[in-house]
Design a protein that fits this description.
This protein is mostly helical and 122 residues long. The radius of gyration is 17 Å and the shape is elongated. It starts with 10 loop residues before the first strand and ends in an 11-residue tail after the last helix.
Length: 122
């Protein structure tokens, strides 16, 4: 039996998720694609949802992580800022170091799992 457990970190600022796995993925796609809407499509989410996630991130940090240019005839687009690149890199390091720190415990937990995950998790 090979199960794979995943460790997912969310960095909270008050009640808001400042950054977590989904927001980090969104930042990565915006960096690669230069567009919030293209990043949203890549992730299978609505533009509105992506924009709300970006807005929350921008409100949580002292400097914006994403800057968007208005659309129109010249297009629009978005880019992650230097601060956004730094936050994304730090978050990725946190993920990597966390996985390494709990590797043994995760392996032990994995050995204790049932044969199959629940069909309707709550």
């Amino acid at each position: 039996m090979t199960q794979i457990l995943r460790l997912r970190q969310r960095i909270l600022f008050g009640k808001a998720i400042a950054i977590g796995p989904g927001k980090a993925e969104l930042l990565q796609h915006i960096a690669e694609l230069g567009s919030i809407s293209a990043a949203a499509r890549q992730m299978g989410m609505s533009y509105r949802r992506a924009w709300l996630l970006v807005d929350t991130m921008n409100q949580c940090f002292a400097a914006p992580l994403v800057e968007a240019a208005p659309g129109g005839s010249g297009g629009g687009g978005a880019r992650i800022t230097a601060e956004g690149e730094k936050v994304l890199a730090l978050y990725r390091r946190i993920e990597e170091q966390s996985r390494a720190a709990v590797h043994q415990e995760m392996a032990e937990l994995e050995g204790m799992l049932a044969e199959t995950p629940p069909a309707n998790p709550h």
